[in-house]
Amino acid sequence: MKRLDLIFGERELDAILTALEAAEVPGYTVLKHATGKGPQTVVSEDMEFTGLGANAHVIVFCELETIDKVRENIRSILSYYGGVAYVSEATEL
Known about the structure:
By secondary structure, the chain is α+β, with helices and mostly antiparallel strands. It has one domain: Alpha-Beta Plaits, CATH 3.30.70.120. Helix content is 34%, strand content 34%. The protein has three helices and six strands. The chain is globular and about 35 Å long.
């Protein structure tokens, strides 16, 4: 089992969820209003008032074959709008 963490601008949430559905992920968790600091920018809740928006964090648990489909579907979205995706091992308790 793999865990996929996607962090990106909240404005791209619909496009990311559409890409996940197209890859037939079994489910996902969406955390809106994610804030924090990256290597080049700080994202705070104040950015919502500027129209730039905050980030969203989407977590997916699925098999490696599904991760490969997700990778194909979201690569262009993340490279154009920005964002990161990380895959790690997940073990159910």
